Amino acid sequence: MNPMPGISQILHLPQTDSTQTVAHFLAEKGASDRTLVWADRQTAGRGRLERKWASPKDGLYFSLVIRPSFSPQRLADLSLMTSRAAAAALTQHAGIETLVKPPNDVLGIKKGKAKKICGILIEASGGPQRLEWVAVGVGINVNSTPPGLPDASSLKDLTGKYWDLTEVLRGFLKSFFRSYEDL
To answer: Which domain holds residue 31?
Structure first.
């Protein structure tokens, strides 16, 4: 696999319970800043408020371990910035219209109808003055839409095209790190 922009280390798994769980473990064991955990499938993906994140084959599921210098009070800014970076990357890469639904969802718009295509989950460890690490979890419905969720969609549904997951990930990382440097 070609190097990913801004990434120091990559762990690519065929399947895991949750990339966030793996990211937490690696962060606690001293994983370097900008470690990427990417899974082809998750069996217990999760979103905000302990919601389950459906993770069918052909989606993009990853967590990024960062060791930020900003204060814990900026975590909400990180969530919104990540959502905006995802929306910008999907618009630029796939040519779709997107909308950020604060604080952590990205909706794809087709024929005036908005449906969820991406969710963000920010989890952190540290104290009130300093963050030890942050796990930035991202789930993007790329080539499959989770069944039974009428308000969900995918890039493939929106464009009629099958997408290369590596290229979608690369586009997200470029957009994310452009914005992250300003946070």
So the answer is: 9-180
Q: What is the number of alpha carbons within 13 Å of residue 79 lying toward its C-beta?
A: 18
What does the buried/exposed string (b/e) look like for 92-115 if buried means 16 or more CB atoms within 10 Å of the residue's CB? ebbebebebeeebbbbbeeeeebb
In a domain, 114, yes or no: yes
Condensed to tens digits (0 to 9), the pLDDT of residues 78-106 reads 999 999 999 999 999 999 999 999 989 99
Query: Is the pTM for the entire model greater than 0.85?
Result: yes
The packing angle between helices 165-180 and 75-94, to 10°, is: 140
Residues 69, 24, 66, CA angle at the centre, nearest 5°? 25
- In terms of phi and psi (left: phi > 0; alpha: psi -120 to 50; beta: otherwise), the region of 6 is left
Number of independent structural domains in the chain: 1
Q: What is the pLDDT of residues 171-183, one digit of tens each?
A: 999 999 999 988 8
Residues ≥6 apart with Cβ < 8 Å to 91: 97, 98
DSSP 3-state of 21? helix
Asked if residue 93 is part of any domain, the answer here is yes
